[in-house]
């Protein structure tokens, strides 16, 4: 039977749900409404438009066939009615109506629905800072703001920019300003690391170093107090520690679900305001569906509900909703929270829990760091990839994985391979034995993912005693010769510069010479062995244990990891 579906919100989830439903029920009617003049665009591409990598803002709104997804497109190609510049002001569940207003004319109207989809997305967190209404301050969340930012930098009006928040959008915007436009860029983050809750502190140090090497100033543990301006435009950002000159400010302090309309209608929400939906993406009203940035869904690692404002999530949920509007029974059981962000030389990617979050969730967890080439070591084009696995010790269950690499495609391939294992509550043995395709231009015969599982197993079995990259850097910086012995197990040609730089502290005994030179290794103090990536030092640790040296630890990731975190060695 023909029905009328009303969809509130037309950026990601809304259009996907509307078009999927119309394909399944072409005889039914769909009305898609949005308060903005432009709809159905890739909001995640805004930093790349600002940087200039995406040429035109219409590229973010176009199909792969270069047709702009406007109201006419949806009517002609999808048979979906679209009302732009139209705000929904009230949902009456008893009468099954939506009250709307034209934001340009003020004209009001009422739409009757059989099924309703709430796809209002999220809104930027805008703390009530003094001076927040000065021009030149933007949350960079829509196409109008994107054009303002791009026009300002392209016109040469911006010499310095401040990013408030070191999450995905904040770091992408920092790269856009500093890399593409050469703007003096500062990131201010309230937490003590970049990408908080997404990268471990150790991995976050690598991301921070990548930013700082390219001239971005990263200020951690600082809070913005106010904005100061001149002639109505922002000129300075005042934190609790300093004053920063700024011609432009991007507020990237996270987002919250835009669900005021839903709460007023009696739709059940969690304390943060996210709509609670079941596996079919239905709300507590069986005729109302929701998804994307509006909803909370189960975290498949912890079993608790989480919030995942990601464009990819919204599109997949939109398809589920469209199917179910047509009488289907598609489900969306939850997510592990996979993500990726491009920085300068490095990209960062992850899924599941960091070690810090795993401990907070009550797991008896450890993390293991590995550095290895992403391709066969003898293949000319390759990059050293950093991966960190988080595992629950008692059950050996994999809880999370994060990584950093120069070649982002290779990195995402590894993270994506582990995502199904996180959903299935798999153990490290399934990581060690994970079947991955192999050819020297694409991977090693023992892929880094398999190696990560193997190293983690060795740690759990007590065969490998590791220091994280951050622990090694701290130990090196804090102790003297009498407290700990540091041995570089690389060949002398690689180790000699550090032996000369730190005489009496940095020792070099290559693996091949350990048996013959065992008397040079003290038996009465802790030993730390390091090599290039951690493989040789692991073997050195085993040999030293065999030769009677019991307190030996291997530096995870070796010198490669130390370089990536910006260690002072």
From TrEMBL:
<dbReference type="Pfam" id="PF07992">
    <property type="entry name" value="Pyr_redox_2"/>
</dbReference>
<keyword id="KW-0285">Flavoprotein</keyword>
<dbReference type="InterPro" id="IPR023753">
    <property type="entry name" value="FAD/NAD-binding_dom"/>
</dbReference>
<dbReference type="InterPro" id="IPR050260">
    <property type="entry name" value="FAD-bd_OxRdtase"/>
</dbReference>
<dbReference type="Pfam" id="PF00581">
    <property type="entry name" value="Rhodanese"/>
</dbReference>
<keyword id="KW-0676">Redox-active center</keyword>
<dbReference type="Pfam" id="PF02852">
    <property type="entry name" value="Pyr_redox_dim"/>
</dbReference>
<dbReference type="InterPro" id="IPR036188">
    <property type="entry name" value="FAD/NAD-bd_sf"/>
</dbReference>
<keyword id="KW-0560">Oxidoreductase</keyword>
<protein>
    <submittedName>
        <fullName>Pyridine nucleotide-disulfide oxidoreductase</fullName>
    </submittedName>
</protein>
<keyword id="KW-0274">FAD</keyword>
<comment type="similarity">
    <text>Belongs to the class-III pyridine nucleotide-disulfide oxidoreductase family.</text>
</comment>
<dbReference type="InterPro" id="IPR016156">
    <property type="entry name" value="FAD/NAD-linked_Rdtase_dimer_sf"/>
</dbReference>
<dbReference type="GO" id="GO:0016491">
    <property type="term" value="F:oxidoreductase activity"/>
</dbReference>
<dbReference type="InterPro" id="IPR001763">
    <property type="entry name" value="Rhodanese-like_dom"/>
</dbReference>
<dbReference type="InterPro" id="IPR004099">
    <property type="entry name" value="Pyr_nucl-diS_OxRdtase_dimer"/>
</dbReference>
<feature type="domain" description="Rhodanese">
    <location>
        <begin position="507"/>
        <end position="567"/>
    </location>
</feature>
<dbReference type="InterPro" id="IPR036873">
    <property type="entry name" value="Rhodanese-like_dom_sf"/>
</dbReference>
